[in-house]
Structure formats: structure tokens, C-alpha cells
Amino acid sequence: MKVFDLVKQFEKFAPKSIAVDGDPIGLQIGSLNQNVHKVMTTLDVRPEVVDEAINNHVDFIFSHHPLIFRPAKNLDLSIPQNEMYAKIIEHHITVYSAHTNLDNAINGMNDWLAERLKLTNTKGLVYQKEINNRKYFMGRIGELPTEMNVLDFANFCKKQFKVEGLRLISNTPNNSIKKVAVLGGDGGKFFNIAKNKGADVYVTGDVYYHVGHDILADKFSVVDPGHHIESICRPYLAKMFREWSNQFEWNIDVIESSLNTDPFTFI
């Protein structure tokens, strides 16, 4: 099969048109006409991930976060990012990234996060756009199977997302909660939408200091387990691609990156 075959099928699931305007999604490096034998799914494309792909004879990397989020100003190979680009090209690897189109997709990233939190009766959180009479939202809001207090829920998040630590923003850790909103990535700016839609607590990453103050002033609770929880995409994407490979007889191998690309360490 060719890169184009997988991309065409994926874009039926998460079309580019549902991405946030200006998001640098799609083909990053390589060719849609390249033959594919082995695909690797990953959250980030970092130098160590590229080395992992090379060592595993991968010829197609499919990532959530764009490889080229900020354009290169030159091709000076003493710069690690540029050296990584050169290595990708040298080893004939194609890289494709699905960012906010995967976030907004129905049964995509935020549904996977909601599933991990065992939420039921989920609905869209932050309205994005309507295409062909179908509304797309970033984030989800739903209900826990049983009530628990804010602190216990924060510990539940640690367990479910397998993180060593997280940030809890709450003046009421003993309050009982039932309705939960979740939005993967940098979603602090949407906390008021979560609150106004009736969430008792909101799960998102990268909450800024002053936003944290606003959350407390609004008597709301937010759990920030970090941006890296979106690495949940690796097994879900891999499963999807394996199913398509069987369905369309692509005969490709699909693996997941095994590396932790979270830049933060709790000490």
C-alpha cells in the first residue's frame, strides 16, 4: 500500500476540514506516493522517536502533534530539530500529523480520554464548527459511574492516565462530584465553558498560573494531569490502522512508539 491509502481512509474519519484554522496538520515530510510496510503511531516526533522508528525499520510515522509546528528558519544541521528532519529524509520515512482534526473527530481523541475516565452519557464540550449538518466539538462532558470527591477523583486520574503526579486546582477537595468535562492538551482557557455546562470538575492540561487563580475565584475545580495524557492516541490509532489493514488487505505492520516524550519529571 501507499501512504495515500491510509491517509485517505483516515481523513474520512477525521477530515482536515474539522481542524482549527491554521493548524499545521497533514503531510509533514515525505511523499503520499511512498510505499508503506511498517507504520508507527506516536504522540510526538522527537529525535529519540525517529531513532526508534529507524531501529524498527518504520517507513511511516503517524503522529498527533505536528512534526513541523514552527517553520524552520534554516537547515543548519547543528540544530537538533533540523538534524532530525534530515535523518527522517535520509531514511526515507514519511511523517503525517493529525492534530486538532483528531481532537475534534467523533470517536477521536477526546472520546478516548472520556472512555479512560469511564464517563457515560458524553456530549461535546467546546463547539468548533458544523459541516454537512454535523456539529463538531473539542472536549467531552459526561458522568462518572459513581460519585466521588474531588481529591479521590484526582487520584483516580493519576491511576487512569498513569502519571506520577498532577496539579489539582481546587479550594473544595472534599466536594462530591459526578459530572466531569475533559479536553486533551492545552485547554485551560475553556474552563468557564466546562463550568457553565454543569461540570463539577474539569480535566485538561497546561493550565497557566493566572488561569489557575481565575479557576479558584470562580469556585471551580480543575485537574491538570499534563499534556502528555494525549499519548493515549498511540494504542487507539494503532488498533484502528490494524483493523483497516485487515479490512483493505494492506498487509502492513503497525507498532506503537514505546517512548515517554513527556518533557516533565516529577521529583
From TrEMBL:
Taxonomy, superkingdom: Bacteria
Keywords: Metal-binding
Keyword Cell inner membrane attached: no
Gene3D superfamilies, alphabetized: NIF3 (NGG1p interacting factor 3)-like (3.40.1390.30)
Subunit structure: Homohexamer.
Stated family: Belongs to the GTP cyclohydrolase I type 2/NIF3 family.
Protein name: GTP cyclohydrolase 1 type 2 homolog
UniProt source species: Apilactobacillus apisilvae
